[in-house]
Automatic annotation (TrEMBL):
<dbReference type="InterPro" id="IPR010982">
    <property type="entry name" value="Lambda_DNA-bd_dom_sf"/>
</dbReference>
<dbReference type="InterPro" id="IPR001387">
    <property type="entry name" value="Cro/C1-type_HTH"/>
</dbReference>
<protein>
    <submittedName>
        <fullName>Transcriptional regulator, Cro/CI family</fullName>
    </submittedName>
</protein>
<feature type="compositionally biased region" description="Basic and acidic residues">
    <location>
        <begin position="95"/>
        <end position="109"/>
    </location>
</feature>
<feature type="region of interest" description="Disordered">
    <location>
        <begin position="81"/>
        <end position="113"/>
    </location>
</feature>
<dbReference type="Pfam" id="PF01381">
    <property type="entry name" value="HTH_3"/>
</dbReference>
<feature type="domain" description="HTH cro/C1-type">
    <location>
        <begin position="16"/>
        <end position="70"/>
    </location>
</feature>
<dbReference type="GO" id="GO:0003677">
    <property type="term" value="F:DNA binding"/>
</dbReference>
Amino acid sequence: MTELASFVDAHVGKRIRLLRGLRKFSQEKLAKALGITFQQVQKYERGANRVGAGRLYELAQVLEVPVGFFFDELDGFASPAAGPGNLQEEQAPFQKDDGGGEKMAEAPQEKNGSGIELLMLPETMELAQAYYSIREEKIRQQLMNFIRDVARRSR
């Protein structure tokens, strides 16, 4: 069970690091918002220290995501020892709805193995920043449709 817990801690840490980067927060800035040291943030991000439920809630508030975000794309969430008679439930990732609450997302059609590592690449960050710097929503949507079309054709 310790191995699974360590895996989950590392996954949550990667999600914290991803969000911190997307929000352009330094470790110091995030630590100050949480009332902890930047070294503690480092330990959370590496998965060296477990993030408690209360702290996870605070992180979600500061980083403006639902708590469930930290567990999205968590492979192997169910214990390997789980078998018949144990309760297991498949969960869809959480997304914010327009009202600021949480809602269940639709299950992804296909998992490309892209995962969180892709989101943390500098190229991905640059692409997202460039995309959102386009002021006209219609143009952004056309660009998105073009990218989806190219992706479909390249499969």
